[in-house]
Amino acid sequence: MKNFVEELKWRGMIHDITPGTEEELKKGPMSAYVGIDPTGDSLHIGHLVSIMILKHFQACGNKPFALVGGATGMIGDPSMKSQERNLLDEETLAHNVTCIKAQLGRFLDFESDAPNRAELVNNYDWMKDYTFINFTRDIGKLITVNYMMSKDSVKKRLSRDSSEGMSFTEFTYQLLQGYDFLYLFEHKNVKLQLGGADQWGNITTGTELIRRTLGAEAYALTCPLITKADGGKFGKTEKGNIWLDAERTSPYQFYQFWLNVSDADAEKYIKIFTMLDREVIENAIAEHQQCPEARGLQKLLAKEVTVMVHGEKEYENAVKASQMLFGKATADDLRSLDEKTFLAVFDGVPTFEIERSKLPAALLDALAVETSIFPSKGEARKMIQGNGFSLNKEKVTDINYQLSAADIVDDKYILAQKGKKDYYLIIVK
Description:
By secondary structure, the protein is of the alpha/beta class. The protein is built from 20 helices and 15 strands. 44% of the residues lie in helices and 14% in strands. It is elongated and about 85 Å long. The model is unreliable at 80-85 (pLDDT under 50).
């Protein structure tokens, strides 16, 4: 069985670790948890680092717990936030928790009979009946305001030039998260909390609470916040987050995100976001450095992450879709795409509309009169006769060709292509 801390070290996945953590792990299987904020009904790739740490933790023979913050999600963590978030109601949170558990099942073993099978817990279960008076009496007295004020998440928020400041609700967040650790320590024998570097203050409040309440030692390990080599925010595109939910981010778009990362980022991400072993990764990096233009490292990274999140079939569909613009895709490949992927592939290409009642129509009229794909029939005729025009990925050389309902893909679209790279989408209304 691999050494968990050593595994994370070479992958560049450790930011802070409390003294004694590695020694405690060497004594035998251990339990640890990661907290996940259920403010949405899908995880995005920003959550993937913590999830991968849990996945490695389980692969090393330990027992992972995923804590979905049904209670703390009602308050909102101030860490790295410039303003207080909107609070969610119980019904929305319950829906989000259900969706997130289904997504976590792709990464962690929740179902087997193994002693280290993963468990999902929800802090709403132990917080819902805990009265404010009892909580402040039992927990509030153990941690001083001075201690809470010393945390970076609090200091940064209060030091910003903002009239909003920080509400008492958010100020108490670290006490609630600390109590989660105490509860899991007592009831589930969880001795280690894992999370992002921005969570260090909240996590160590938990270890301190355990020490003051039980006189016991608990441990913490955080991973670096992932950045891009160019300084841009990881996981963000012009359209927002890259989600794990296929309805929000299609498998094709997901695959494209990883395929298009820089060489420097690919070398970093393949260690963090895949389960490939060290020898395979180092060989892949070496091969990539010999021939970076082949983008072999990006292709391997995109394959591993897409298969892990969406499965082998969706990965194959994403590769097929990627070949639409730059590869040797066929008409059958085009027609096999679902509408969402079809639109994602051809997002941004010029579009034209044509009335269904006008079909069948002479191709030259369709290209130069009904639409302006060509400025004139003469230019359209010249390119068609020169073997430079394709309809739905098939060459058309007959200038008398009639555009008909048989040319419509997904009962709505016709794809026209001039030369190798110029695409146009005709929407049949």
